[in-house]
Amino acid sequence: MSAAPVRLGIVGSGWRAAFFARLARALPERLAVAGVVARSAARAAQVEAAWGVPVFRTVGELCGAGPEFVVASVPWDVTPEVVRELVEREVPVLAETPPAPDVVGLRELWGAVGGATRVGGGALVQVAEQYPLMPGHAARIALVREGLIGEVTSVQVSSTHMYHAMSLIRHTLDVGSGPATVTARAFTAPLADPLSPRGWSDDLTPKDAVTTLAFLDFGGARTGLYDFTDNQWWNPLRARRVVVRGSLGEIVDDTVVRMADPRTPVESPLMRRRTGTDLNLEGAEVHHISFDGRVMWRNRYLGASLSEDDLAVMDLLCRTGAWVRDAGPEPYPLAEGCQDHLLAMAIEESARTGAPVTTAVEAWATADTADPLMPPSAERPAN
Asked: What pLDDT score does 76 carry?
C-alpha cells in the first residue's frame, strides 16, 4: 500500500461526521480529509473554520477533489440518496449505519446499487460497522475462530443497540444471511440517567427507560440473545455484558472457561495492557489484549491515544483505505449491513406486535460472505 495518506471525503457535517474528521487529524500520516459536504453556507463556514478542511456544497464538487472513498454520514433517510449518487460517479462509498431506514429502503437500495463493483474488486458500497473491530470483541472473536471453546452455539449481547448488536451476534456465531426467527419484548422501568452525549445532568431522578429483550433463532442450534436498555452506551448505572457459549466452554466478558483435560476445567482472563497509570509515561493507551501469554489483539495505532471505540473506527477507515488501493479485502460489504438492519427491524416488529417474526432470505443473501470482518491477527503489519 502507498505510503501517502488515504484521501477520504465526508458527506455530512453532524456529530458523527466530525468523528471521522477528528480521527483523520489524529493520524495524518494515514488519513487525510479531501473535503466535506455541508448542507448550508453557514454550516460550511463553521465546518471549514472548526475542522480545517475544504468544504463543498455538493457531492459533485467533493468528488472533484479526488477522494479515494467517501463516507456518507447523513440522516438515515438521506443515506440511500447519497449512496446512489456516489455509485453513479463510481466512487467507493462507506455508508454510515444503517444504510437505509427500513426494510423497504434496504431492498430498494440493494436493487439499485447492490451489484455495483469497483475495478479492483468487491462491492462498491461498504458499511461503517466498527463494533467487531473493537478490541475486546475482536479478541473474543479471534479466540472463537481458534476453536478454543468448541462449536459456538449461543451469543448474548447486552452492550450496544440494534444493528451494531446484530453484527456482533452474527459474526461471533459466524452466521450469514439465512432466515432467523426473532421473538422480542419491551419493558419499561424507572432508571436514573445521569450521563448522556450532552454531558452530566446532575439529576438522579428515575425516569422511564425501555429495555428490549430479543431471542434470535438462526437454526442449526445457533441462537442469539439481545438485551438493551435506553442510553445503555452512556448510562454508568447499566453495565455491558457479552457471553459466548460453545460446546467446550464459554467466554463471559473477559473470562474464558474451558477444559484443560477431561477432568480439569480452567479459567483464564483476557488481559489488557494499559499504559499511563502510576509512573508509566508511555501515554494513556491500550497496547494489546493477551490470553495465556498470546496476543489476541494489538493496537496498530499507538501514539494517537485513542479510545477503544476510536481504535475500531480508525481500523475500519484504514481497512477501507487498504481495500480501495487493492491492498486488503472489503471492510464490511453492503450485504452485511443490510442483514444486520433486517434483523434489527425484526426485533422492533416483534416487540411492537408481541408475535415472532421470521426474516426472509433477501436478495443480498446471494452476496453473503458470512464473515467479512475477521479481526487482524496479533502480528498483522500496519496498513
From this structure: 94
Side-chain-side CA neighbours of 271 within 13 Å: the count stands at 11
Three cell numbers, residue 45: 463556514
Could you tell me which residues come within 8 angstroms of residue 53 by beta carbon, excluding any fewer than 6 positions away? 21, 33, 35, 36, 47
Cβ neighbours for 38, distance < 8 A, ≥ 6 positions apart: 13, 44, 46, 47, 55, 56, 57
Of 80, 95, 103, the C-alpha closest to 127 is: 95
Residue with cell string 453484527: 167
Type of residue numbered 148: L
Q: For the chain, what is the mean pLDDT?
A: 93
Condensed to tens digits (0 to 9), the pLDDT of residues 192-218 reads 999 998 999 999 999 999 999 999 999
Whether 343 has a pLDDT exceeding 60, the answer reads yes
Write phi, then psi, for 330 (nearest 5 degrees): -60, 135
Average of per-residue pLDDT across 297-315: 96
**pLDDT tier at 56 (50, 70, 90 boundaries)?**
very high
- Which residues, including other chains, have CB under 8 Å from residue 150's CB and lie 6 or more apart? 246, 247, 248, 249
The answer for 121, left when phi > 0, alpha when psi is -120 to 50, beta otherwise, is left
